[in-house]
Amino acid sequence: MKSTFDDSKPIFQQIADMIADDIVDGQLKEGDQVVSTTELSKFYQINRATAQKGLAILVDAGLVFKQRGVGMFVAEGAKKMLLAKRKQDFYKQYIQPMLDEAKRIHLTEEEIIHFIKEDSND
Questions:
Q1: Which GO molecular-function terms appear in the entry (predicted)?
Q2: Is 74 helix (H, G, I), strand (E, B) or coil?
Q3: What is the Cα–Cα distance from 109 to 121, expressed in whole angstroms?
Q4: 15/71 same-domain check
Q5: Which domain holds residue 105?
Q6: Which of 45, 58, 100, 102 is 20 to 30 A from residue 26's alpha carbon, by CA?
Q7: Bridge-partner residues for 73, per DSSP?
Q8: Average pLDDT of 47-57?
């Protein structure tokens, strides 16, 4: 777990993002128990409700499920869902604007591919 938060997003969103990152990176696998709201609130010295709100985002997205009296666990297919969403977000945030600008300045598909390959050879 990272030890500090920044001001770019609400803390509860950063908690959800941190756990989602752990799922994508393979640190949390399907069926693994997720850190509890109590542990999160103690570790980060935050309100327990803030930690619960972060975990609720993951539950609502179907990435984590609650097992009454036991805790929260990574749902089956969570990594696959996260990867699909992040690929879609990547396309919207980076690729689509790049392609729009490439069209605007009349770059060919070959030139774009050349730029990408050239950069990956560094």
A1: DNA binding; DNA-binding transcription factor activity
A2: strand
A3: 19
A4: yes
A5: 79-120
A6: 45
A7: 33, 65
A8: 96
